[in-house]
């Protein structure tokens, strides 16, 4: 059934035709040659063959011959600020990597956060991400308006965005990993998180900016911050995000400090539920997976980062079989230097096949695409408005160029996208507005971003060296 925009002659329409389409709807409907019509900021038609004739106010027609149209990619876990600390501590596990980098991260300021956000967003947007999120949890004193800088960068880029307003209050003196000057007080973190939600969170159907409550991790926040953070999120009706079950060291930490594993600890603090998603969830036993499935707690799977930090292989096939919502995440670019989500489609498939239980049956191309689109929308609580190409949903979609020599001899377009080299993006639309054309950003100067991120990385390095 067409959306109401079909009857509105004033709305501007964009018609994409002659393309392969993977809708990623509930039936995984695909068209070998089909059309998508964008009306304003919504999808008005999607189907086989040519678009309906006699559409009013068509402002653009795109010939998608040799292309695949999919929903825009949805990133479910990231740390934008890390763009200016890439390539450091390259041979460390998670805890040693954090100890090595926290002293540097504790010296970021507003300009650094803005520039790093531009770099992180540019890499994702140019690679087909239409919805991004940033888990920012480092708020040094007198560092400026970091949350505002990050949100501004996302707005300028034209990307749909969730800021997971993070926090840390367990420093080295309390048995945590962050240095003392890198953390906030319990009261300060909660107050600023609430203020950020009230200022920026938009609960509407086609919202471009949302905010989640996101204490960093069990080893960097107090039990009270987790408990009161959950109460705050549910009082204000926003989602909740944190790191969980990432490494064996984390599991050992939780048993030593709390007398239980990460999942049981999270449940005891109110951190399981359909409004919660966890980053990583690598070391999950059957009971943990069952608890996530029972509560519909989501997971952000970050295969490249998990490999970079030698964290392990998450049990994604078992989670999916149990009914756990799973999306994909880039993770911070200090542990995934490429910063591109479309490469995670391939890496998720390949790394999960290394699991000795499932092997070649772990994931297929279409399951991987679903993780990066509809699965991510589920995890962010937005499956009713993004994540699949369906009439009435927001017009967030990508036109992938499979005409290149790297892809043209692969007959199946979804296989070409997932198994093949990273495909160029001919066009990417967010909320009906094009943000990428022929693999270049339309609302950001990539060369200028290269200059500014290099300068800010060098400035941060100098400040850190001075102690």
TrEMBL record:
Keywords: Hydrolase, Metal-binding, Zinc
UniProt GO MF annotations: deaminase activity; hydrolase activity, acting on carbon-nitrogen (but not peptide) bonds, in cyclic amidines; metal ion binding
Domain Amidohydrolase-related span(s) in chain numbering: 68-434
Organism per entry: Streptomyces katrae
Membrane in keyword set: no
A Pfam family reported for this protein in Swiss-Prot or TrEMBL: Amidohydro_1
CDD domains found in the cross-reference section: ATZ_TRZ_like
Protein name: Hydroxydechloroatrazine ethylaminohydrolase
Highest taxon, organism lineage: Bacteria
InterPro entries xrefs: Amidohydro-rel, Metal-dep_hydrolase_composite, Metal_Hydrolase, MTA/SAH_deaminase
Gene3D superfamilies reported in the protein's UniProt record: Metal-dependent hydrolases, Urease, subunit C, domain 1
